[in-house]
Design brief:
This protein is mainly beta. It is built from no helices and 11 strands. Helices cover 0% and strands 58% of the residues.
């Protein structure tokens, strides 16, 4: 079992920045690939970014490439999402995800609102 707790969301103006954090507890964090997803009102949950267990490999949705950066600190059991040049269309609830083989865990989400 892995428990995930996100933080760092809030209200920011367009062009601003936020850094989301997700702290994991329970199973061995460093074994898991970690990701961020987001869900806007009335829409499906979409992939944002993912990072391999070692931090070597990262992948991004086209919509955030060049603006968002995912990173992890295995010593702190934490994954981060640095979000720069935020746009109103980035407004959503952001969810942290931990994945290992068939195991799949989610956090409760943190709200990000970008005003124009």
């Amino acid at each position: 079992q892995v428990q995930l707790v996100e933080s760092g969301g809030g209200l920011v103006q367009a062009g601003g920045s936020l850094r989301l954090s997700c702290v994991a507890s329970g199973d061995t964090f460093r074994h898991y690939a970690m990701g961020w997803f987001r869900q806007a009102p009335g829409k499906e949950r979409d992939f944002v970014a993912t990072i391999s267990w070692s931090g070597t490999n990262t992948y991004y949705a086209d919509s955030v490439k060049g603006r968002f950066t995912i990173s992890r600190d295995n010593a702190k059991n934490t994954v981060y999402l640095q979000m720069n040049s935020l746009k109103p269309e980035d407004t959503a609830v952001y969810y942290c995800n931990a994945r290992l083989a068939f195991l799949d865990y989610w956090g409760q989400g943190t709200q990000v609102t970008v005003s124009s």
